[in-house]
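Researcher: Hi, I'm a grad student and pretty new to this. My advisor asked me to get structures for two proteins we've been looking at. I'm not sure of the right format, so I'll just paste the first sequence and hope you can take it from there.
Model: That works fine. Here's the first sequence with its structure tokens right after it:
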Amino acid sequence: MRDTALLPPTEEELPHLWQKPAFDVLLAGLKKLRVELRVWTLHDSRRDILEEQAATAHDRREIVSFLSTIIKSSLAWLDSDDERELIWEEASKRMSERCGRTAMGEITRCWPFEHCDHGSFSLAIREPPLAGDSLGLKTWGSSYALAQLLHEFAAGPLAHLFVPGAISTPEEVLELGSGTGLLGLAAACIWKTSVVLTDLPTIVPNLAHNASLNMQVVEERGGRAEVAPLTWGGGKDGIDARFRALNRYQLIIVADPLYDDDHPALLTSAVDEQLALNSDARVLVMVPQRDEITKGLLCTLREELAQRPHPLLCLEESIVDGQDDWGDEHDHDEMGNVGFWWGIFGRGQPASA
């Protein structure tokens, strides 16, 4: 059944150009066509998503045709060049939004969280337009998938780090490759602790914006979020002062960190420098299993972590199903279920000389 609250108007509700609709009518019609990206959960059914897509496929074709007609039209009946330029601009935006996430402009999505232990809250996350290799400006599905499991980890395999008064309780949690900050901000809220969110210097401004945007939500739940630049393998030159003292963090979290062949070694270097050396320290990692390349990068990461002088061994692991919007949100293959692998690593015995 078509949900009119979520889906764009049908072709019959759109203005007809042959009727030479007024500027206000055209602009209002185009604004109604704005695409709002889906916020999914681990419990979403792949079947439900495909049924929704199929139910609106005709509408999408009609809308694309409508937008194309506007872009090609001279709009000669409008009163000014300024009006025509604004209509063409809006139509172009609506068209680009239907070409996948990488073609979209700036968006802000609200990500809901609800659990009996931490109550209900939502985080507003700004995602600027993607440019070049700035993948950290997008919120990837694994961040939300891992964030929704944080309460289970705190009550299960990471419980020793959250026992009140325990010597090992982390004063701060370090997130590597925070991107837009969804995972780190959720951790601050759910775990009621201080989280340091880090990424490349080019990603930090948007990350800091999102931390500021959600400051009240985080603090109301007993958490704290700070943002700092941290380049994996960047050496000590120009490093933020807080990272100069090595091996201070009892818990490191990271989601979807592997895109290139050099990432496993770089991530391993950052983890090895920042994770405490005691046996209680842990690293929580989530890696989507999108394809054979991603699976291979995960295997390399495990090998890199195990080969350190103080090896990091996988103590517990599993895979959960989730959704991602790596490609076109209307592409059935791209929007398929993704297996999100997670693993918890701890320090092993030093390698023999």
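Researcher: Oh nice, that was easy. Here's the second one.
Model: And its structure:
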Amino acid sequence: MVDEANKNGPYLGLVIPNMFEMNPLLNNPHYKSTKLVIDYAGRRFRFGNIYNKPVILVMSGMGMVNAAIATQLLLSLFEIKGVIHYGIAGNANPNLNIGDVTIAQYWSHSALWNWQRYGDGPEDSLPFEGEGGFTRDIGYLKFGSYSSNGVDDNLLNNVWYQPEEVYPLDSTPEQTQQVFWVPVDSNYLSISKALEKLKLEDCINATTCLSKPPKVSTVQRGTSANIYLDNAAYRSFLYEKFNISPVEMESAGVALICYQQKVPFITFRALSDLAGGGSASSNEADTFSGLSANNSVIVTVEFIKLLAGYNRKILSYV
């Protein structure tokens, strides 16, 4: 079945976190199912067309490991010319609002840490620090800086952010490179600029609407971790330290696989809440997550429409 399916490729691969985010696409009038479904290793690969472009949809499941597995299976089994990842996200950027769809230029995994021994500080080297080992280059979080009683000390001390080890497709096996900020494909990013004027949904019903019309925004950075972030202090730290906007649990897994396999990718994440609270919109994620999921689908479908003329042989990263 895989061999037969590949005769109709290459495909755009759409990696989607869960059914809550997949259903709006399955119900979108521009998605036409071919009725072909291939189940493999616990994943279901759904085949269809969006604006006459062949696509494969796969649900990843929650978290970076699931996202990476689903993406690698997609790339290993099928002829894929590019990967689009979409869904909802928390927001760390106070200049953005619920319902906005973010297009991040870079993605990171922000939960690969070296947790420093209590008593050591920024001037002290980390265990195994050196060539190919841990690093203090990216920066650290000092827990004592967030004490509610003003005491600049905490037994949790510091954590230092670490890059991922990646295994590029064209490198010597078992020789790795380190990367913290994974860039999206520059051609995809350039094409996506046209989406910034796209009109998005702003109302759930006649009485429940967003306080500000949502928009599509290109942002510098997004980040993923196997953590549901609902903490205002850490949200603020991520924004101030790294200029991060969307925060969620899957995109970096997709990004790292595509980066290593040299497959162009892009991620569209619609903001469903201000991580940790503080938004003027009551109930936030509980109220507007469905609207945000719909907006991420609107942007994804329109992006695929814009892809006409894209040269799949040019894999260009920023």
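Researcher: Is there anything I should tell my advisor about the second?
Model: You could mention this: The CA atoms of residues 144 and 150 lie 9 Å apart.
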